[in-house]
């Protein structure tokens, strides 16, 4: 099967006016990446790392300075209108709904824009309304929606024409915990039932952890990492942390094999030990601790992805 | 027959958007009526300006007030109709700044058609009513030859005038891609052009005659057809058959507008240009 997204040496430069002088800024630099149908890819990086520029080139909004890009087998700039029928995009900050019209009306207009037959339109709208729990606010004008409601409506709007590729640019930005969770659950279910390919940019590492099976890290326009989430932690040597709660105050647990004592709280009642998942396991560290002291409870903290990304950046400079 | 169906289907997205826009404006009836009234007042004030001017002079550029009324009516009605359909191209800077233009790129229709059909300002109907009234009055008080040629000239002038003004809106839109705060500058020729179009071109200074006579062909929307319609003597440098050349002016304006639009879009997408 052919790739959904395929880029080769994709590069985009901008001319920036810096006072009287002009200088060239490379927003995306020699990006070569291939995304297969059905994948869920997290595209992460700092602000200005080139994420939005990449998305604009994938969708045909921006013309690449050099290199090639194919999306859904089409050339995005040349075949923009055909491509538009196959992709769904949510820009977290830009609404594609009509702010003064009821949500239902926006869906009706978008169905006309995508030339959906009446029966398909009804079935698809009903399905999305049910799965995204939008029945309560279908008749509400978009401008009166809460952010969480609006974002669900935006996602539904992007999915109405059942696109093969869904691109979400910061979909959970500003959402409360519950709204975030709902949206993620919907996206997981959507992938399971429809096999939709998902490309997601986000600052929220929870999104990546919950939704993505592959991560692309971009730094200064260059691809800094391409692989799974666990591998990302391994590559950067980010450590997992075992937190133990003890029965009695104890001295710092120093000298546990392959583990490092990070901190103690409450006179040593609660202690944190870092370990490298490559060289040992949580069970082994736990066993070594339990030999010395009585443990009441414990948790294992996964590497903080933001920290991981920071480490990637640091290592590259 | 099959072709008719596809054309209908192709037009449906635009029709649905426009219908929704139109109905949303009339939902708040009182609001809509106020909008209409304010729009009407603005148009009446502009007509009054011309009338006041003729209290000071009896002739302007070789035309008397009742003749100017026809120039004003023709140009103003053409402009108002273009404004109704294309006026919200003025919103482009807002779309550009908010990034909402990108949303148009994600829909399977041509960009310019989406922009043009993205809205319709029904309040501008009030403006068109004033233009129509002025035109009606102008036709009534003047000695118009109501033969086939006269009627044809009137229709040709109105349609091509409307197209010319519409092109001005598109032209201005195309320039917005380059100008960060360019609305003031483009308003100068869009609204300045409208103002110029409602005046006799013979009073313009020579540079204005070049700019609004030919580059932005405003003289073709009101002044030149009126000269021809009333069989008035034209200034020495203008042959009267130019009154029939509205369609050529519209074609020129649209060529300029589309060039500018494509240039702007190319710039926006960063394809060089």
From TrEMBL, chain A:
Topology within the bilayer: Peripheral membrane protein
Subcellular location, record wording: Cell membrane
GO molecular function: ATP binding; ATP hydrolysis activity
Annotated InterPro entries: AAA+_ATPase, ABC_transporter-like_ATP-bd, ABC_transporter-like_CS, ABC_transporter_ATP-binding, P-loop_NTPase
Database matches in Pfam families: ABC_tran
Coiled-coil regions, chain positions: none
Protein name: ABC-type uncharacterized transport system, ATPase component
Organism: Frankia torreyi
UniProtKB/TrEMBL annotation, chain B:
Pfam families attached to this UniProt entry: ABC2_membrane_6
TM ranges: 32-54, 66-87, 125-145, 151-179, 210-229, 241-261
Keyword Membrane: yes
Alphabetically ordered keywords of this record: Membrane, Transmembrane, Transmembrane helix
Domain of life: Bacteria
InterPro entries in UniProt: ABC-2_transporter-like
Protein name: ABC-type uncharacterized transport system, permease component
């Amino acid at each position: 099967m052919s790739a959904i997204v395929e880029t080769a040496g994709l590069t985009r430069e901008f001319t920036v006016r810096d006072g009287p002088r002009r200088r060239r800024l490379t927003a995306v630099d020699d990006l070569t990446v291939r995304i297969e149908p059905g994948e869920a890819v997290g595209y992460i990086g700092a602000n200005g790392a080139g994420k939005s520029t990449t998305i604009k080139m994938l969708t045909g909004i921006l013309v690449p300075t050099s290199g090639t890009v194919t999306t859904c087998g089409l050339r995005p700039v040349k075949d923009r209108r055909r491509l538009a029928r196959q992709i769904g995009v949510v820009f977290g900050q830009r609404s594609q709904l009509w702010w003064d019209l009821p949500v239902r009306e926006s869906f009706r207009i978008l169905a006309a824009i995508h030339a959906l037959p009446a029966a398909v339109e009804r079935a698809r709208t009903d399905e999305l309304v049910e799965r995204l729990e939008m029945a309560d606010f279908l008749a509400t004008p978009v401008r009166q929606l809460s952010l969480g409601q609006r974002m669900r409506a935006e996602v539904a709007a992007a999915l109405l024409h059942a696109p093969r590729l869904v691109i979400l640019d910061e979909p959970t930005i500003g959402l409360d915990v519950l709204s975030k969770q709902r949206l993620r659950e919907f996206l997981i279910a959507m992938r399971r039932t429809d096999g939709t390919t998902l490309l997601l940019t986000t600052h929220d590492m929870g999104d990546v952890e919950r939704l993505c099976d592959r991560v692309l890290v971009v730094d200064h326009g260059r691809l800094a990492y391409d692989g799974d989430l666990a591998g990302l932690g391994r590559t950067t040597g980010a450590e997992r942390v075992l937190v133990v709660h003890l029965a009695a105050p104890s001295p710092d647990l120093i000298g546990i094999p392959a583990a490092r004592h990070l901190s103690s709280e409450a006179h040593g009642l609660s202690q944190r030990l870092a370990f490298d998942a490559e060289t040992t396991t949580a069970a082994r560290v736990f066993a070594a601790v339990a030999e010395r002291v009585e443990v009441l409870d414990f948790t294992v903290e996964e590497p903080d992805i933001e920290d991981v990304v920071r480490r990637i950046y640091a290592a590259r400079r | 027959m099959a072709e008719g169906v596809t054309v209908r289907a192709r037009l449906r997205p635009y029709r649905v958007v426009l219908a929704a826009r139109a109905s949303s404006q009339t939902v708040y009836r009182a609001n809509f009526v106020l909008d209409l009234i304010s729009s009407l007042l603005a148009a009446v004030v502009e007509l009054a300006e011309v009338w006041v001017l003729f209290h000071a002079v009896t002739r302007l550029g070789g035309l008397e007030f009742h003749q100017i009324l026809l120039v004003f009516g023709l140009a103003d009605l053409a402009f108002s109709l273009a404004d109704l359909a294309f006026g919200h191209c003025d919103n482009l800077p807002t779309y550009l700044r908010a990034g909402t233009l990108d949303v148009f790129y994600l829909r399977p229709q041509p960009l310019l058609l989406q922009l043009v059909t993205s809205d319709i300002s029904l309040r501008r109907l009030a403006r068109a009513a004033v233009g129509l009234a002025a035109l009606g009055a102008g036709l009534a008080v003047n000695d118009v030859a109501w033969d086939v040629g006269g009627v044809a000239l009137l229709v040709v002038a109105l349609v091509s005038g409307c197209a010319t003004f519409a092109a001005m809106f598109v032209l201005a839109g195309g320039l917005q891609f380059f100008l960060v705060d360019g609305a003031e500058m483009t308003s100068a020729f869009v609204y300045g052009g409208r103002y110029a179009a409602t005046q006799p071109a013979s009073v313009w200074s020579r540079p204005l005659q070049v700019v609004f006579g030919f580059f932005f062909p405003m003289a073709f929307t009101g002044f030149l057809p009126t000269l021809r319609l009333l069989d008035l003597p034209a200034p020495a440098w203008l042959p009267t058959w130019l009154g029939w050349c509205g369609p050529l002016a519209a074609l020129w304006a649209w060529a300029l507008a589309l060039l500018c639009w494509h240039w702007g879009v190319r710039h926006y997408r960063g394809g060089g240009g």
